[in-house]
């Protein structure tokens, strides 16, 4: 699959036009393309009937934009698969394996394991000899590795200055989380630390809980995080960044 630079430029210009930017100078600044280049591509788009004389996108232009963006999406997807297959993945050997051996890949207790090829499912090729329970490398990975569906549940509560009875809040939190299924529990901030101590529980994630929760979710574990409103807002940018990097991780925000 091959994508021409001209196609990318025309699609990006058309996307800007569709979003309301019709002046060439405005599009040039947005895309960091020379004004002459924008004018040149707009002329071609108009000749093809994708925009009208007022630089408004036409029905044919919408079709071209939709199909073109889908084409690029397919290109990116196939490229990522190609790159992924050439990477070396860390895995734990479930038995003695030989270099160049085709193996099945699966998650066990949150870690990637390799064993004799089962005939279907995720698989790859070992890059070196390894003994049982040793870490080895696998490349040319194929198929999707099955991971248990998981999410991150953030339970936020009022700040300390709005809380008159910590014992009552502790009982409320305890009753609330009893009805939630999760693998790990994490805390953020001094108030959350006080509450979990009152509950007589030891947190699984005590520092960098948000990062740990996302890492756990990628490995098939659901994490519940206790946090005050204040610390939740402090962590909001970090949560957004991690969510953008891990779009498949479900985030469940709750307030009690």
Descriptive account of the structure:
It is built from 8 helices and 9 strands. By secondary structure, the chain is α/β, with parallel strands linked by helices. It has 3 domains: 5-84, Arc Repressor Mutant, subunit A (Orthogonal Bundle), CATH 1.10.10; 87-142, no CATH class; 151-255, Cobalt-precorrin-4 Transmethylase, domain 1 (3-Layer(aba) Sandwich), CATH 3.40.1010. Strand 4 (123-126) and strand 5 form a beta hairpin. Helix 1 (5-18) packs across helix 4 (59-86), helix 2 packs across helix 3 (35-47) and helix 5 crosses helix 6. The longest helix has 28 residues, at 59-86.
From the alpha carbons, calculate the radius of gyration and give it in angstroms. Answer: 26 Å
Structural class: alpha/beta
Q: Give the tally of β-strands.
A: 9
Sheet with the most strands, sense and barrel status: 5 strands, mixed, barrel
Give the N-to-C terminal Cα separation. Answer: 52 Å
Q: What is the percent of helical residues?
A: 40-55%
Strand percentage lies at 15-25%
Low-confidence stretches: none
Reading side by side through the largest sheet, how are the strands ordered?
1-3-2-4-5
CATH architecture of the largest domain: 3-Layer(aba) Sandwich
In the CATH hierarchy, what is the class of the largest domain?
Alpha Beta
């Amino acid at each position: 699959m091959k994508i021409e630079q001209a196609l990318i430029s025309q699609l990006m210009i058309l996307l800007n036009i569709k979003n309301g930017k019709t002046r060439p100078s405005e599009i040039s600044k947005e895309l960091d393309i020379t004004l002459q280049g924008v004018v040149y591509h707009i002329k071609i788009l108009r000749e093809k009937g994708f925009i009208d004389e007022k630089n408004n996108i036409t029905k044919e232009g919408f079709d071209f934009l939709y199909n073109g963006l889908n084409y690029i999406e397919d290109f990116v997807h196939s490229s990522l698969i190609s790159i992924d297959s050439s990477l070396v993945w860390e895995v734990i050997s479930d038995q003695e394996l030989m270099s160049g051996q085709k193996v099945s890949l699966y998650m066990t207790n949150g870690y990637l394991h390799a064993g004799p090829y089962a005939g279907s499912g995720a698989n790859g090729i070992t890059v070196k000899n390894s003994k049982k329970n040793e870490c080895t490398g696998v490349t040319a990975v194929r198929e999707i590795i099955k991971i248990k569906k998981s999410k991150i549940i953030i339970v936020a509560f009022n700040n300390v200055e709005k809380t008159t009875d910590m014992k009552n809040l502790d009982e409320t939190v305890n009753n609330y989380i009893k009805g939630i299924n999760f693998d790990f529990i994490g805390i953020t901030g001094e108030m959350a630390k006080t509450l979990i101590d009152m509950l007589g529980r030891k947190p699984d994630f005590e520092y960098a809980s948000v990062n740990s929760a996302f890492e756990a979710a990628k490995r098939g574990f659901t994490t519940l995080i206790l946090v005050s409103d204040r610390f939740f807002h402090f962590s909001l940018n970090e949560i957004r960044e991690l969510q953008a990097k891990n779009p498949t991780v479900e985030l469940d925000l709750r307030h009690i």
